[in-house]
Amino acid sequence: MTPALLLLGFVLLLVGGTWAWARHRRTGKAIAVVATAPAASAAAPAKPDATLPRLRPLMRRLYAATLHQPELADATRPIEGLQAQVLHQADSLLDCLDLQPQYMPRRPNLLPQLMRAVNDPDAGGREIAAIIAQDPALATNLLRIANSALYRAAGAAPVDTLERGVALIGTDGIRRIAATALMQPVLSLDGGMFAQLPAAIWHYALRAATAAADHAARHGRGDDALSAQLLGLLQGLGAVVVLRVLQETYARHDGAAPDLAVAAALLDRHTINTARTVTAGWDLPLPMAEALMEQRPQRDGLAPATALGTALRYGRLAAALAALARLGQMSDADALAQLAALEPDAQANARLWTRLRAETPTD
Q: What contacts 323, CB < 8 A, 6 or more positions away?
């Protein structure tokens, strides 16, 4: 079979899978983007691995500590009355988000160019910097992130030009920073209903993206680091979309005081599926959708099957642990012990931990 026919077959498979997913979403049922063999549906469900840390309880603890409401750590706490109505309505909207284009963020204009460049083995950091330079605001944002404690070593000279960023950070580093800077405007969310949540979401997403890219660079293929970086940011974007839907739902109920327990429940249920909807809408590579499928709440205790899925799980776990440690809810030793369940390289974990514990990731 010729390469052209193989490519055509892949495209048809991708289109068919996306159409099937959208069709099933209209019925309110979540399904995988990639079709599975009929025999797989009859197989017994995989059993959780008791050695793997659970992300859902950690995220609940993080909500509780960030918002100074200890009761948010309890996912079994009932939601009743008007709050239950709001939860149900927002839940229904998020279940068919692909049919609600008004909630979906637009793809950053430069994202296709960036994805093509980073997948081109002949493209260098200067070419990627030239893409970013097309948007002055984006270039300024990139330099600000490049100079943050998360990326620039203490005592190092400031990064004052995109070209200097390439020289100091290297091609892989500038690719990751470019991806972060490209996504940050899309991730923006004003305080609005929950005040502290937007900044917390962005800080968490940035750390998750950094940790996922670090893991993928050491264990994945050449382009996995950028994909992992984007996925870490996209799950933050998924959380932003969930909160926007909730804000508009509350707006339809005069006098209904926002309840953070409702927000926590929706973030728990819908963040990953919403990120997956965005990934499909932006025509991002299929392996990214597969990696997100491996993060669904019902797979919290299961090890991801793909390298990219493992990198994203590691990034999400590392970001949650770092945030809890900064808030005094967990010791560094306990956090690193949990990271070791996904990554046995203690030295790599320690190096990453120093970066994630930087006081303010975007300053």
A: 62, 65, 66, 200, 203, 204, 207
Looking at 3.30.410, 1.10.3210, 1.20.120, 3.80.10, the CATH number of the domain 55-102+190-358 comes to 1.10.3210
275 pLDDT exceeds 80? yes
Closest by alpha carbon to 188, among 174, 162, 206?
A: 206
Phi-psi region of 23 (alpha: psi -120 to 50; beta: other; left: phi over 0): alpha
Amino acid at position 134, single letter: Q
Question: Please, how many CA atoms are within 13 Å of residue 154, restricted to the half-sphere of its CB?
Answer: 4
pTM for the structure as a whole:
0.79
Which of 49-53, 107-111, 115-119 is predicted with the least confidence, judged by mean pLDDT?
115-119
Q: What is the mean pLDDT of the chain?
A: 81
CA distances from 118 to 128, 131, 168, 185, 196 (A): 8, 11, 18, 20, 34
Between these two residues, 249 and 139, which has the higher pLDDT value?
249
User: Residue 277 pLDDT more than 90?
Assistant: yes
Exposure string over 31-64, b if 16+ CB within 10 A, otherwise e = ebbeeeeeeeeeeeeeeeeeebbebeebbbbbbb
Kindly indicate the confidence band of residue 311, based on its pLDDT and cuts at 50, 70 and 90.
very high
Which of 260, 267, 211 has its CA nearest to residue 235?
Answer: 267
* Amino acid, single-letter form, for residue 149: A
Q: What b/e readout covers 296-330, taking b as 16+ CB neighbours within 10 angstroms?
A: eeebbbbbbeebbbbbbbbbbbbbbbbbbbbeebb
Structure tokens at 169: 């950070």
Does residue 4 have a pLDDT over 60?
no
Two structure tokens written together for 177? 């920073």
Q: What is the mean pLDDT of residues 135-145?
A: 82
- What Cα–Cα distance (Å) separates residue 350 from each residue in 148, 336, 346? 19, 8, 6
Q: How far is residue 273's CA from residue 97's CA, in Å, rounded to a whole number?
A: 9
Domains in the chain: boundaries: 55-102+190-358
**Torsion angles phi and psi, residue 297, rounded to 5:** -55, -40
pLDDT digits (tens, 9 = 90+) for 252-270: 998 888 899 999 999 999 9
